[in-house]
UniProtKB/TrEMBL annotation:
Domain Sulfatase N-terminal residue range list: 39-424
Pfam families: Sulfatase, Sulfatase_C
Listed InterPro entries: Alkaline_phosphatase_core_sf, Sulfatase, Sulfatase_CS, Sulfatase_N
This protein's name: Arylsulfatase D
Gene name as annotated: ARSD
Keyword Calcium: yes
Leader sequence residues: 1-31
Species assigned in the record: Rhinolophus ferrumequinum
Amino acid sequence: MGRLEHACLSFRSWLAVTAAAFLLGVRPSACSDLTGSRPNILLLMADDLGIADIGCYGNATIRTPNIDRLAARGIRLTQHIAAASVCTPSRAAFLTGRYPIRSGMVSSNGYRVLQWTAASGGFPTNETTFAKILQDKGYATGLIGKWHLGLNCESSDDHCHHPLHHGFDHFYGMPFSLMGDCAQWDMSEKRAGLERKLNLCFHIVAFAALTLTAGKLTRLLSISWTPVIGSTMVAILLLTTSYFVSPLIVHADCFLMRNHSITEQPMHFQRTTSRFLKEVSSFVRRNKQRPFLLFVSFLHVHTPLVTTEKFLGASLHGLYGDNVEEMDWMVGRVLDSLDTEGLTNRTLVYFTSDHGGSLESQLGNKQYGGWNGIYRGGKGMGGWEGGIRVPGIVRWPGVLPAGRVIQEPTSLMDVFPTVVQLAGGQVPQDRVMDGHSLLPLLQEADEHSAHDFLFHYCGKYLHAARWHDKHSGRLWKVHYMTPQFHPEGAGACYGRGVCPCSGDGVTQHSPPLLFDLSKDPSEARPLSPGTEPLYQAVIATVGEAVRNHRKTLSPVPQQFSLSNILWKPWLQPCCGTFPFCSCSQDGDHSET
Ligand SMILES: *[C@@H]1O[C@H](CO)[C@@H](O)[C@H](O)[C@H]1NC(C)=O
Ligand SMILES: *[C@@H]1O[C@H](CO)[C@@H](O)[C@H](O)[C@H]1NC(C)=O
Ligand SMILES: *[C@@H]1O[C@H](CO)[C@@H](O)[C@H](O)[C@H]1NC(C)=O
Ligand SMILES: *[C@@H]1O[C@H](CO)[C@@H](O)[C@H](O)[C@H]1NC(C)=O
């Protein structure tokens, strides 16, 4: 804040701000100190959306008029970086303002997101979200949509990782994540693998059972009937389980909750979109008299791309495009809720995606994942730009300038200190924070972002780092490891779901790969000491920054360790009778 005040006093920035305000025709408000101004905060996050999937980021053929309008009336960040290239860790970093490695939401074992609702891993109870701070500051806090940060620790209803234990006082949505398996898509996240394993086990046990039976009947083996009957029963159990894997997953993970109660298990996808919108408008209406924080975490545009009839076939880009256009329409409806209550000028709106589009999401020759434009790579790739560079839009009419574009490096982790500052709260002082308030940049008080370096992790492994050299304006990116594509040179890990972070599937670069993103944003031309005189100096500077960063890390419990990631039947939330777990309450308590 000291920096902000200082900058506000500087004549140079006053002049710049006044000139910009004059040119843009807005009130010169940029120098007002917004600390503690307590606007409403509306955060919109898409799931798996690529940066080039929307009009205002250069897509000419997809229709996203609502998001484009948001950008036209607000500020568009062009170098907005997610702290991880997959859901769970990126969302953990967003909510804590810290790299996910600090909260233990990473692993070295290949599991990079939570795999089951009934796993014991999840958002540690001692992490502080910005929602918690805003709640303490008197904000009404709501989360509508996807969580995917865990649920229970020890029993099926302790809800230790639940949003209501992390600063939200209202939750309606999926504690887990939408996935292909929820709709029994061919593109399966875990069903296909489980079925394969169960079938293999079945064949082994069935073979053993037959051998034992034959041996017993022909009296070649002198054994009792117990192993014969036992192995036959295990074989039958395995066969039945593999037969029911699909409905089991649908019941175990694809359900909706309102606060602490399950309302739909399994959920009815076709109703979800309208339910969410209704929830949003009633939350806004209920809380219009007080400042609120509402985090709308879309299930769009994750596979299986559940799209209502109105949008099916509407876009030029197949089912994926239809789903993007429907999400844009939802954004419009959410913004309408603000307008209806006359809250638009009192609300800071933010839009982003948790990470880049997935290149591997394809069936046959149909692409079901997002488009990352000129950026190399995609979802799951910790270092390549396509996995981590996402849209970032901020609008606050009359307070922040309209139609501006900021190219400075910013991070999703910056939202934490930004909203805490606006609410008049204090960021936690007892831990390392990685985000920086965006206000000086947004208000044009600072020309440069506070991020000199950003670190790009893949699980627990540091794959790359960027350095924005403010003096020369050059943007360097150093890659220490990159995933090996499959097939080689394909640009993605086709057939593998997602690229690995470590082991045989990655290439270690020694010396590291260096790119100058200011000239080569597509990371197409690696530099060498021969072509780039600054090569050694840049590698040394970034190496030093990495060492300093590593000194600030301390060991924490791993939330994705094997024991934390396994499905545990006793943690399975279930409404109705176990194992049927089925209910469908209308659950429309929101009007009361
Ligand atoms: C627009 O988005 C669609 C859907 O992701 C994509 O297929 C297309 O290539 C994009 N077009 C441009 C120009 O980025
Ligand atoms: C959720 O619980 C909070 C209290 O913790 C309550 O204010 C809110 O109304 C509840 N929401 C619903 C939809 O029941
Ligand atoms: C909201 O702010 C805009 C931009 O400053 C202004 O044109 C508009 O009149 C304001 N609306 C209300 C209702 O105050
Ligand atoms: C949370 O608790 C773990 C130990 O259980 C500890 O390692 C970690 O530093 C704590 N985090 C914070 C932010 O206090």
